[in-house]
Specification:
Number of helices: 5
CATH topology of the largest domain: Arc Repressor Mutant, subunit A
Radius of gyration: 17 Å
Order of helices and strands: HHHEEHH
Helix content: 40-55%
CATH architecture of the largest domain: Orthogonal Bundle
Distance between the termini: 28 Å
Strand order of the largest sheet: 1-2
Number of strands: 2
CATH superfamily of the largest domain: Winged helix-like DNA-binding domain superfamily/Winged helix DNA-binding domain
Shape: globular
Strand content: 5-15%
Mean pLDDT: 92
Low-confidence stretches: none
Length: 129
Amino acid sequence: MKFQCDSAARTPIYRQLIEQVREAVARGRVQEGERLPSVRQLSKQLVVNPNTIARAYTELEREGLVHTRPGLGVFIASLQPELSNQARERRLAALIDRFLTEAVHLGFAAEQVTAMLAKRMEQFQFAEK
């Protein structure tokens, strides 16, 4: 996995890294069990403080996206939703509402939003029914 960060962005670097891992998992670019670069390697590569990388990895572990094997590194975890179906649906509904609100304010028609969403969905790996 190739990481990048933008030190001029408003988003903190550790959040940028978290979002890159989340997106890579969602798009299937990284698989369960795949090893991420070590804190030291990634901090050298991105020229950032190792604590920034450690913070990102800690947050990802808290979210259940990665797990640490002492002495071996940080690995992509298997996706196992910890929330009930009802809680997951509520959370997704809130995200969809924010997305649709933005689409309305940007002046898109419902058909345009549906078409764009269908096209973008093709790039992601969804769970089987």
